[in-house]
Design a protein that fits this description.
The protein has 6 helices and 5 strands, in the order βαβαβαβαβαα. It has about 150 residues and is an alpha/beta fold. It has one domain: Ribose 5-phosphate Isomerase B, Chain: A, CATH 3.40.1400. α4 runs parallel beside α5.
Length: about 150
């Protein structure tokens, strides 16, 4: 799977670990930064990853910041991106099954000793259930289309 990944300074260590483990698992991983622990602005990295996902240049995206919230907010501004902030395996599975989330946002400061690789692997392996959830996602697409057309919400 082609995965674009990015983080701000608060997620750089987790990102480096994920780039290594995902690459070792055979995924094509595109690291879009940052590579330092000096303060940077998370919207820049959310934008870089989400542009790739929205354009179909990456199948999935992973974003990491301190709480995951800022990345999630920025990511969900992109048409076709369904970003979910997850901190455990249950959330990672359900955001795929019910919401077909294509961008995973992680809270670098809050993940603690949780097995991050397992959480990411569950998210990557879980399929979308479709069914009743498909109807709901179609409504989200309509909202995006209305907003893009300028009719507002």
């Amino acid at each position: 799977m082609h995965i674009s990944i990015g983080s701000d300074h608060r997620g750089v260590q987790i990102k480096a670990r994920l780039v290594s483990s995902l690459s070792a698992a055979g995924h094509q991983v595109e690291d879009l930064g940052t590579d330092c622990e000096q303060s940077v602005d998370y919207p820049d990295f959310a934008s870089a990853v989400c542009r790739r996902v929205a354009a179909g240049q990456a199948e999935r995206g992973i974003l990491i910041c301190g709480t995951g919230m800022g990345m999630t907010i920025a990511a969900n501004k992109f048409k076709g991106v369904r970003a979910a902030n997850c901190f455990d395996q249950v959330m990672a599975e359900l955001c795929r099954r019910h919401n077909n989330a294509n961008v995973l946002c992680l809270p670098g400061d809050l993940i603690g000793d949780r097995p991050i690789d397992e959480l990411v692997n569950i998210w990557l392996a879980t399929e979308f259930d479709a069914g009743r959830h498909e109807r709901r996602l179609e409504k989200i697409v309509l909202i995006e289309d209305e907003h893009e057309a300028g009719s507002g919400i």
